[in-house]
Amino acid sequence: MISVCITTFNGQAYIAEQLESILKQIGADDEIVLSDDGSWDSTLDIVARLNDGRIKVFHHDSSAVKTGFILDKPTHNFENALRHAKGDVIFLSDQDDVWLPGKVEAMCQALKEADLAVHDCRVVDSALNELLPSYFQWIGIHQGVWSNFIRVSYLGCCMALRRNVLEAALPFPETKVGHDLWLGIVADRKFRTVLVRKPLILYRKHDASKTTSGRKSSNSLWYKLAYRLTVLKHILLLYLK
């Protein structure tokens, strides 16, 4: 069984296009686990109108996240989706991208040899005009715990993993460690990871995007320092287990 975990927050502009691109590739017994972080636009109405029983909607109480770091709420929204996933193979998805044909097949093939796979993507603007033909080439993709500590190169929306990785990664660190970084670190430390060097999604970058991947970060020096120190602490704890 495949579970696609997707998080939403005021995603009315693109959510239908994204879900339709996913539904075309999964089977009748697979699921999309959608965790919503309190959208006040028409996101959930659009999801309901798709009327597909494979989409299972859960609600995340973002008020329970008591930290001020910008990525903590979306990270724990993803954790909520992942905790509800039933599949043996789990995909992560953003609310505003588009899956290209063949993604599920290619990633399931990669997971025959690994526990976590990360594929390349084409970076596009809000209208799907290409900005970068290869995120891997732009970021200088690399594997390994310490390489990704120095410069994060894994995107969650390009990940698929086996359940053993998820079980080892839960619970997520409370603050300052993004969900994709954490899953990548756990997989690189404890399991087998593989890179799929083929763009399998259109990775949409626009003004409402939550991450800084693909553009220069505007975070303060204090934010960056606190983030790195917290990640370092959790890496060291992984090595002590």
Report what the structure shows.
- The chain is an alpha/beta fold and 241 residues long.
- It has a single domain (2-240), classed as Spore Coat Polysaccharide Biosynthesis Protein SpsA, Chain A (Alpha-Beta Complex), CATH 3.90.550.10.
- It has 9 helices and 9 strands.
- Strands 1, 2, 3, 4, 5, 6, 7, 8 and 9 form a 9-stranded mixed β-sheet that branches.
- Strand 6 (116-124) and strand 7 form a beta hairpin.
- Helix 7 (163-169) packs across helix 8.
Quick recap:
Helix content is 37%, strand content 22%. The chain has 241 residues and is of the alpha/beta class.
Determine the strand fraction and express it as a percent band: 15-25%
Name the CATH class: Alpha Beta
Quote the average pLDDT.
91
Count of domains? 1
Q: What is the CATH architecture descriptor?
A: Alpha-Beta Complex
The gross shape turns out to be: globular
Order of helices and strands: EHEHEHEEHEEHHEHHEH
Question: Topology of this structure?
Answer:
Elements: E1 2-8, H1 15-23, E2 31-36, H2 43-50, E3 55-59, H3 72-84, E4 89-93, E5 98-99, H4 103-110, E6 116-124, E7 130-132, H5 135-139, H6 145-150, E8 159-162, H7 163-169, H8 179-190, E9 193-204, H9 221-240
Parallel strand pairs: 1-2, 1-4, 2-3, 6-9
Antiparallel strand pairs: 4-8, 5-9, 6-7, 6-8
Helix pairs in contact: 7-8, 8-9
